[in-house]
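Protocol step 4 of 6: record predicted structures for both targets in the notebook before any analysis. Target 1:
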Amino acid sequence: MKLYIKYMVSIRCKMVVKDELKKMGLHHLTVDLGMVEVMENITDQQREQLKIALRKSGLELMDDKKAILIEKIQNVIIEMIHYSDELPKTNFSDYLCEKLDYDYTYLANIFSETKGITIEHFMILHKIERVKELIIYDELNLSEIAWKLHYSSVAHLSHQFKKVTGLTPSYFKSLKTKKRSTLENV
């Protein structure tokens, strides 16, 4: 049985879900960002119990099909930008359609209607958070970061970074306290 969980955007979230399932005596087959598959069929009472337990950790069990699809879109983007070593070589819209088995226009429309921003803008916000993270780690220079995140140039990355944050990447790097948003808040 598949269950869809909102705000499940990190490895820590996966651990919380696994722990809650274990406490309830449920066995998971897979635990991915935004989704868990359990071996058993769960009762309404177990579902409610899991919903309450997850809520305490800031997670939310979802029932609405539209909300589930939006969460899947977000999780594909988060997984791709924050947890993959390399971004896909294909066009992102094709990649998303392939992963979710929906037409991109449908996905883009439902996402914009629900979230109030486009998929592209959501992706840009996450790419900028990833750029911040890579700047803070200080293992790659801006050219390497631009290449890693498929920017056409350092100038393009810098322009987008400044447009989103109001700061240049160099100025951000020089700050003593570098502010990043949690993935749930991007």
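Target 2:
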Amino acid sequence: MASAPAPSADLSDIQLVDNVLRGAPGAFEAFYRRHSRVIYHCIRARTDGQDADDILQAFFERLLKSNFRALQLWQRGSSLPVYLSKVVRNFVTDFHRARRSREEAVGGDMELEPLAESQGEMTTAATHLKELRHVGVRAWAVLEPRDRRLICDRLHRDLDNEAIAIRLQLSVGALRTAMSRAQARYLAQVRQLAPEFFPDRA
């Protein structure tokens, strides 16, 4: 009889990262629980507190979209927290550089008219958006690797159905069915994690 897998708290960083890279169920969530605090403090040390939450979410979104390239490049045997701090430092620099480029493209520090009726409404909407993005990352982490690949190819790589079908060796019809089911499972995970954002319709 096969022994049960060790709890994530008992795994070394090498074992945990290897589980993430092979798409083991729950591995990314375990990685997030263990290292997100260190990553967040690294971000706070290099940016304004107001941006820290956004950068944290953007960092984990980049990890997911890149198929954990940063973890693939980690040299086993070296300290993972030290390595992550270097990765985060570079990411924060790139994040601010990209933001400055966007601001320059639209006219520098030009003030925009508020779209909400009050500043309080704008703040609430921004808070809800951050919460929903956080839920989205958690929902993504528990999807099957095949579902993540389907959604990533469509939404982030912007591939058409024929290109994705060739990559996955599927017919276009089978791909449409698989894509629809993957998106439905992703939305179901989001709804389960944050039902308050999806009230039942009367």
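Step 5 preliminary note on target 2. The two ends are 50 Å apart (CA to CA). The chain has two domains: 10-108, 122-202.
Proceed to step 6 after PI sign-off.
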